[in-house]
Amino acid sequence: MNYIDCHRFRPAYEFDYVALDLLSVYPEDAGIYTCRATNRLGQAVTSAAIRVIAKKDHYTEHPQTMEQIQYIEDSSRYQRKEWLDEMVQIKPKFVSQLKHQENLREGQTAHFEAKVEPVTDVNLRVEWLKDGKPITVGHRHRPLHDFGYVALDIVGTIAEDNGIYTCRATNGLGYDETSAILKTSRE
């Protein structure tokens, strides 16, 4: 699957279901998106066009509000700072841990969340594991990584989802992990 590796682009693939969610779209996200499925017998391709209307095209009754929005969105104000360079020179560390999910009934949604530092490290990779093996991202398994916040939602839990879930954060200097148990019951 070729897509931009970014927390705003969330691909999903499970059985015969494929999707790409774009969170917080921007004008530069406009274009044609193509999904290509390939196997030894051939391929299937589908495309969709996305048009994004920029905020500046929106009308507001309060000109001061629009000026404040433009000020916040002005990327030229954000210069790379020395403290930022220093901050990303540390190995990942979870500053809050996952919590066990032991009282869920089958069919409910399990929600794991934690916080990891450094939050500004563009090389930080977050991976979710179940019983030591990578999980398959799909419509039931929905990971999120946004500015130090990591989460995993498991929609419509079933008995096979029971186990130990681990979130691993890795950069060029090392890694850290946090784990929790998911235990569901039929009652």
UniProtKB/TrEMBL annotation:
Span of domain Ig-like: 92-183
Top-rank lineage group of the source organism: Eukaryota
InterPro entries: Ig-like_dom (IPR007110), Ig-like_dom_sf (IPR036179), Ig-like_fold (IPR013783), Ig_I-set (IPR013098)
PANTHER family the record matches: IMMUNOGLOBULIN (PTHR47633), MYOPALLADIN ISOFORM X1 (PTHR47633:SF4)
Name used for this protein in its record: Titin
Source species of the chain: Amphibalanus amphitrite
Gene, per the UniProt record: sls_6
